[in-house]
Amino acid sequence: MTTIGETLTGADLLAALRQSLSDAEQGGVPGPALRTALLRCDDPLVLRKAAKTLAKLPLDNGLRAAKVCIQATCTIGSFAPLLRAQLVGAGIAPELESGPYGRFELTMATADFSEHDVVACLLDESYFLPDEWDTLDPAGLGKHVRARLEELRGILLGAVERSSTSFVLHTLPLPAQVRDSFISWSGRAAVSQAWHRLNADLLALAEESRQLAVVDLVGILADQAVAARDDRMFRYGDMPYTDDALLALAKQVRRFTQAKLGLSRKVLALDLDNTLWGGVLGEVGAAGVQLGGLYPGNCYTQLQRTAQRLREQGVILVLASKNDAELVSEALREHPEMLLREDAFSATAVNWASKAGNIEAAAESLSLNTNSFVFLDDSPFERGHVADELPEVAVLAADGDPANVVRTLLRDGWFDVLELTDTDLKRPELYRTRAKRADFAGGFGSSEDYLAALEIRLAAEEATSYTIGRIAQLGGRSNQFNLTGIRPDEAETKRLAESDDHLVASFAVRDRFGDEGIIGATWVECGADRWDVTNFVLSCRVLGRGVEIAAVHWIADKARAAGAKTLRGRFVPSGRNNICADLWTRSGFTEIEDGVFELDLGADAEGASRSPRWIIVNGEDA
What we know:
Blueprint: E1 3-4, E2 8-9, H1 10-22, H2 32-40, H3 44-54, E3 64-72, H4 79-89, E4 92-98, H5 104-110, E5 118-122, H6 138-162, E6 166-170, H7 176-179, H8 185-204, E7 212-215, H9 217-224, H10 231-237, H11 243-260, E8 267-270, H12 281-284, H13 297-312, E9 316-322, H14 325-334, E10 347-351, H15 355-366, E11 373-377, H16 380-389, E12 394-397, H17 405-410, H18 422-440, H19 447-454, E13 456-462, H20 468-477, H21 490-498, E14 502-511, E15 514-526, E16 530-538, H22 547-561, E17 566-570, H23 583-586, E18 590-593, E19 596-600, E20 615-617, E21 620-621
Parallel strand pairs: 3-4, 3-5, 5-6, 6-7, 8-9, 8-11, 9-10, 11-12, 13-20, 16-17
Antiparallel strand pairs: 1-2, 13-14, 14-15, 15-16, 17-19, 18-19, 20-21
């Protein structure tokens, strides 16, 4: 039986899922640890059975809803149930829809998919190959393949124009029966070259629109060493892919959807002994740990290098180790093979306290939820304790053969984003400056004096082609300071920004300690007499400085300058956004009905919506 996670077999997982759906205290929803077990399951049969249970999820399930449409050039087989299991594993409640069999081109060329979050396109070679081809003319076959690709490209770009959704495609393996039909080595090389070019051109489609994403399924199948095809099932039911291949694709579509919905993690919390280096520091000393050189030291070097690359892309690194702090500092500073020095970590918890408590403390110091954390540790006890105390943390095992740890860290796509923004790249250093601010705060008699000394500057500006991606990312990721839960994706945000009757804007903050980057965004419907704030989101890392009030003031000034008489905002409670429940009343608005607030722009010309005195907006004292 396939072992799943650290303790669950396939049968245990299925039993636990059934129990979770009948557990009223859990709301009939599998908890975080059980969902993580779903992600780690590599047995398609277990996941197909799990999907039948998960199809009975209650409507009010607390997971992020997503509408996913599957369009295919072939029979989809088990793709839908495998995708359902993967999406639920990521905390997503999917509404799945499959297009009609044999109508891929017609549907893709005519349908409007705007109500869907993702359209997954399942392709097979039959779309690109003619029924008959001349083995003496591989160049002619290559020409036909290129022509079919151009037809697909036109269909996809047309769908992008009609819809605001995202389309996920994939590269295709070349069946052996096609390749080996060419008995000359030159002919076989020519047809393989044409097929490699097809896959390269498919991958290049992602460069033509941000709404197109392409999975390198060929590379993934080669790395996982699973069969792409079962010839009997292909002939019997037009199923060009095995369940193992479909699961590999479902995992990638899940990773994309997870990233699009803003469910990716931001923080990697790392143990030290037998995780970032081999050996126990307290026993062997800084010079005795295994790091660099031959196996196993090169495994730990590779893990550090991977963590370093994640940090360069915006992942926040945190140390969580039961160890002697002075010895750790010595090792991080002086070991010649150490890649991650002290300044690589935005927060450090090196002590003998509970790791679960240290992770909570690190989350508080970073103003992040613990559900933003991934925790990597070699100790089953420590992993089990963190999983029990903080089930929302993704807990990964670093024990066993150290050669496998990098694969363990990367395989589930915990940190995937659709596109890197400038703020992502700056994030680790942004969070390091928080400690400096905390030290600076100790010398002031009042919070207002401290805030004034910070020299806070808010840059508010309408969306540009450079900020659209970050604005959409904030909408997707922000859960606590998110007034309505409306989350326009990047394509919809771009459409709104370009329309005459909407305002889409970003808010960036900097102070004497550094630039926080874009930390807030708003989407506003602009009527002649009234402006309505569809949503306003803000990163929790800047709360407590009055930035949100200054941003509302800027929106009010824009509305007033455009001739509007009132500005209206809403608050829709989600169970996680109580932190911003009083924003509108704190900004001088009056509640006119449940959850709806309004500001009289004429009466407020010099009134309650003014910015805090310590914040400078767009270079001028507000």
